[in-house]
Structure formats: C-alpha cells, structure tokens
Amino acid sequence: MEYTKEISIVISLFNEEESLPELISWIESVMTKEKYSYEIVMVDDGSRDKSWDVIKKLSESNPAIRGIRFRRNYGKSAALYHGFAAAEGRVVVTMDADLQDSPEEIPEMYRMVVEEGYDIVSGWKKKRHDNKLTKNLPSKLYNWTARKITGIRLHDMNCGLKAYRNEVVKDIEVYGEMHRYIPYLAKNAGYDKITEKPVQHQKRKYGTSKFGLSRFVNGFLDLISLWFLSRFGKKPMHFFGFTGILMFLIGGIMAAWVIIEKLVQQSNNLAFRPVTEQPLFYIALVAVIIGFQMFLTGFLGELVSRNSQERNKYNIKEEL
C-alpha cells in the first residue's frame, strides 16, 4: 500500500490557543531537520477559546496543516477517530497539544515502526512533572491494573504520545472514552507487536490540566467493559449461560436440601422448621431466579450477536 506522506501527526485539542503556535513551530523544526514528508491533522474538540482561529492562521502559512472542528466537545476518542480517518501517512503519531509531549521523540518512534516492524510504539513518561498525589499515584495504580487485565506490558498506557502503523488506526474503532486503551483494542484486532519508548515529559506551560477523578474512575469502568467485550463479545452465552446454569443448579440443590431435610425430620417425628421459615430456602429461590435471568440474558445476547452485521467481521492480514 502506498502512502502520500511518511508521517501523519494527529493532535486532539480543547482550549489550547496559547500553546498551538509554539507546538507547530516545534514540530515543523523537527520534520524539516529530518526531511520527512508529513501532515498535521488538528482536531478542535469544541474549544471555547480562539483555538480554531489559530489553526486557520497556522494552516495559511503551512499547507501540511489540516483542521477538523467539532460543533461541541465530544471527547478525545471522537477527535482521534476522525483524526485517524483523515490520516494519510505511513506512520500515524498522536500527541497532546499542551506542549507536554516532545516532537523530538517522533523520529525514533517512526524508525521503530518502520525498521523494527512494531505495530505500536507507546511513549512512557518515566519521569513525570505532574502532582504526585492527584495524578502520579492514580496513574501508577491505573497502569498496574491495565497491565494485569490486558496482558500488555506498558508502563504508561494513557500516554498521549504514540506511533502506529497506518493499518492499525484504520482497523480499530475508538469510541466513548476508549482512547486510553488503543493498544488493547489493537491487540484484540490482531496487532500484537507493541512496545514502549521512554519519552521526555515537559511541564505544562499554558492552561490547566483536563485530568479529574471522574476520568480515573471511568478509566477502570471502560477497562472492565473492554475486557468483557474482548472475551465474550461474540459469545455472550459462554459467560451468562454458564454462570446462570451454575447459579440455577446451586439454588436448586439448596432448595432440595431444605425440603428433603424437613421431610426426613417430619417422617421420623423429629422437631423441624417449616421450609418457609428457613432463610436458606429464600436464598436458594433468589439463586434460581438470578440463574434463570442470567441464562435468558445470554440467550438474548446470542440472538443479538448472531444478527449483528459485525458477527463475521475479522481482520485479514493478507491475501494472494
């Protein structure tokens, strides 16, 4: 496959008017020095400042700059989705617009993709300049959990500075807030040559951080969702059906035990408690009901999956 550019740099931004001129100047300096053919795809995610005016002005002096503007703020995943769709370069590089990612890292990341054959090269901000209590510690906990669940040995999965083979970003769909887990999405699509590179982390020069506790919590919820979908997305009955049958059997056995015990004691003229007065009987009934509902959920999930247009969508590596 032939590409019109060597590198596409996709930048998602929100209210970054102060940093954009300096960032573009920095990128242009690196690209000129390395003599790359490149494009810069800037996606304005509904900024309320003058970011779009700055992008238009910068594009007038550099035809390599392309701009996409959302009517409102949709989030980084939506911005990357459209940026990836527009990217025409052999290698697609993502970076943030806040000057905390260094364009000086791009040449080596490009080389690792092109010469060493990696699908993804993820940046690792080994030495961070963020607040340790509000960002560093949650980030370490998040990355440790992500490594355990995904099996991808990245120290900084959420780093905005990454390099991808073009095929990777074209074969995955980034939605919701799944931009944090693009390496995991790529792995599930069959792109498993993933590595990392320690990168410089600059102190924020303008504006304020967009990080909040809600993003930290949502990150874990999204990770659980992705893990479940990757394991059972095309075979929901394997999870819900098995769990439902197991709970149904456990509840049925417990209920039978309570009833049989009562009948045995009654037949031997021993003291006994009525079945309806035993908490275990109601626990058994709840288990039976939940088991049946989970089995039914799995069955409905299978009906939806089998009628989905993507039920037989698989990534083909090559054909003859």
Question: What key phrases describe this protein's structure?
Answer:
320 residues; alpha/beta; Spore Coat Polysaccharide Biosynthesis Protein SpsA, Chain A; seven-stranded mixed sheet; 10 helices; elongated
What is the strand content? 5-15%
Helix and strand pattern? EHEHEHEHEHEHHEHHH
Distance between the termini: 14 Å
Helix amount, in percent? 40-55%
Number of strands: 7
Unreliably modeled segments? none
Main beta-sheet annotation: 7 strands, mixed
Given the helix and strand composition, which structural class is it? alpha/beta
CATH architecture group name of the largest domain: Alpha-Beta Complex
Number of helices, counting only DSSP H or I runs of 4 residues or more: 10
CATH class category of the largest domain: Alpha Beta
By CATH, the superfamily of the largest domain comes out as: Spore Coat Polysaccharide Biosynthesis Protein SpsA, Chain A
Can you list the strand order of the major beta sheet? Answer: 3-2-1-4-6-5-7
User: What count of structural domains?
Assistant: 2
> Using only CA atoms, what is the Rg?
26 Å
Query: Averaged pLDDT, please?
Result: 86
Coarse shape: elongated
What CATH calls the topology of the largest domain is Spore Coat Polysaccharide Biosynthesis Protein SpsA, Chain A
